[in-house]
Design brief:
mainly alpha; about 290 residues; MetI-like fold; 2 domains; 13 helices
Length: about 290
């Protein structure tokens, strides 16, 4: 009888603990998601509501015109396209360079492979702020300021150290026998990389692409320094320029921020499983 009572008590304690943890997680989820909800509601308000005490509540009037203003007068559509171009080319170029460089370092027997890897990894210790002035001088001398290249080149350069660090660790875990058997069958090194290695390293490349996307899409310092032309400005700088010198209409700025946040949310919703798998694989293998 006492054993049954003890079992019942243990089950009851476990249920209470489970419900308590579930409640904590629900509260934590609300805390994390509320800023997104607040930003969405903020984007439909005017200055009177925002500064008149209705900063947290629902809009009295849903001003869809804020989005129209942001896309037309605020030129957010153009800024969004610029961000897509810069981020897209950054991901493509960095993925190609990272995959080929890491493969050459790990798989090819040459004298200075370890030294080259060390040089690449040294880039992890370089603060991005310390490179601002030297990069500005170099880009100015090359006459590529106010171009897409003035952003793509630094973004790719800063993506290489972390990407090579992750991918070299991943490649060390892949048996060399896979390629050796392909070489015996007459496959050259390019086909071995494309048909054998590349499919195996896709999870690691996904991890690298995610990190590169986040760092490039949200970057402000380089974009604000190297680009002054409105036709080249990215979304982060474009939204910053929506603030007026004397009066600022905050509703369209909120709309611009929602537009800037949507791609990241959509990527997570559509690719959440792949994102989680790639991060786990990258963490374990890298």
């Amino acid at each position: 009888m006492n054993k049954n009572v003890n079992k019942t008590n243990k089950i009851g304690i476990k249920k209470i603990g489970f419900y308590f943890i579930e409640l904590i997680l629900i509260i934590w989820a609300i805390v994390q998601l509320y800023p997104l909800l607040w930003l969405f509601l903020f984007s439909f308000k005017n200055n009177n509501e925002i500064f008149g005490g209705n900063i947290l509540g629902l809009p009295h009037i849903w001003l869809w015109s804020n989005y129209i203003t942001a896309l037309s007068s605020g030129n957010v559509g153009r800024y969004f396209l610029n961000s897509v171009i810069v981020t897209g080319f950054t991901i493509i170029i960095s993925s190609v360079l990272i995959s080929t460089s890491a493969y050459a370092i790990v798989r090819m027997n040459w004298k200075y492979s370890k030294l080259v890897l060390t040089i690449f990894l040294t880039g992890l210790m370089v603060p991005i702020h310390a490179t601002l002035l030297p990069l500005f001088v170099v880009l100015k001398n090359l006459n590529i300021l106010n171009t897409y290249a003035s952003l793509i080149i630094p973004y790719v350069a800063f993506a290489l150290p972390m990407g090579i660090f992750i991918l070299t660790g991943f490649l060390y875990s892949i048996p060399k026998e896979l390629e050796e058997s392909a070489f015996l069958d007459g496959c050259n090194i390019y086909k071995a990389f494309y048909y054998i290695i590349l499919p195996l390293i896709r999870p690691a490349l996904s991890t690298i692409a995610i990190f590169t996307y986040l760092s490039s899409w949200n970057e402000l310092m380089f974009a604000n320094t190297f680009v002054n032309n409105d036709n080249i400005k990215t979304l982060t700088v474009g939204i910053l320029s929506l603030a007026g010198e004397y009066v600022t209409n905050w509703g369209p700025i909120g709309a611009g921020l929602v537009i800037a946040t949507l791609p990241t949310i959509l990527i997570y919703i559509l690719l959440s499983e792949q994102v989680q798998k790639s991060l786990i694989v990258g963490a374990v293998k890298g």
